[in-house]
Structures are given as C-alpha cells and as structure tokens.
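Give me the fold.
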Amino acid sequence: MIAQGLYLPEKQLYKELDEIIKEFSSNYEHHFDKLLLRIPEQSYQGISPSVLVASAVIAYHETKSRELTPYPDVIPTLKSLAKTDLIRGVITDGLAIKQSEKLLRLKLYHLFTPGAVFISDEIGISKSNVKLYQRVCNDLYLSPSEIIYVGNDPVNDIDPAKAIGIITVLVRRGVKSLTKKGRLKHDYQITNFRQLLKIVKSKE
C-alpha cells in the first residue's frame, strides 16, 4: 500500500491493522477497507482506495504462498497414520473457503479421510461449543471414547472435546497452548506430532 502511494509510517499502519484484526477477527473479509476508514483521508488523497486495497490483498496472498508451511513433523506423521485404517479428520474454525484454502496450500487435505473435514462455517457451530464435537461424533458414527482429538488451544479445543468424553491431546506449541488456561485437564501432552504415533499405538 505504501508502494502505491499511501503516505503513513509502516509501523503506524501495522499497529492499526493489528487492532482491526483483533476487533473483527482474522476471518473478517474487509480488513484493508476498514484500515482506510481509520486513517486520515489525506494520507492517500488522489489514490484510488480500490488500488490500495487490491495491492494489500495481492501482498497478503503472496505472503501466504511464500510463508504458510506446516511444522516439519506434521506431514510425516499424517502420512504414517494414512497407512492405517484409522479415520483421520480435522475440525477447523472459520470461513469455509478460507479454511479449505489453508488445508490445500499446506498440502494436508489429501491426508485426511474424505468426509472427515469439519469447518465451523459449513456446520453453523463454532468452537468452543460442545455441539460441534458431538456433531463430529454423530457424522462419523463414533463414540467420543473412540476419538483422539489434537489441539493447541486449551479453551477452544481441549475443554469442549474433553467435556463429552473425547480423548484429548494438547500440542504445547504456539502462543495459545503456552498462555491460555482451560477448565479441563487434557489426557496427553505433546510437543511434536511424531509423539502422537505412540499415543495412537497405545490405544489399539
């Protein structure tokens, strides 16, 4: 946006954008439009707002293509699990197209069982509502005790899954797992996805 003529310091713009994301959530579709509403109009006088927004959207997608990669232990672990007859699924919170895009960009989608990808936007129930996890059990014809659920958020992942009797694994990696406190105690804790294979084997 600055390269197209927006006249404000990068740090100031980034701080404002970060505030917008926190206020409207990362799933909001018009972050950059809101950014232009919140900064002085004279800072982009004579420049088409649509050009500024388009330039930001292009940079956002280019950054995703360049930077969005899974942790190195994730794909090998999922490939190992794919050699078994276990159902491999994912529960993800957010907009359907956006979350699907992430799974495809990360080259993870093909490693999950068809029909076992659950996106809150498509179901109408979001984390941390226990109904989301009950829906997964019902759709997969599994009892909660037959499911191992892996998450990094004690509140939105572990608490609702554990509440209905799902076996829970907390991944201690990332800000959420290190700073948030849940109500219920997880069954297992890992720092690397490869450790999940031992847990799965112990449940066979």
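The radius of gyration is 20 Å.
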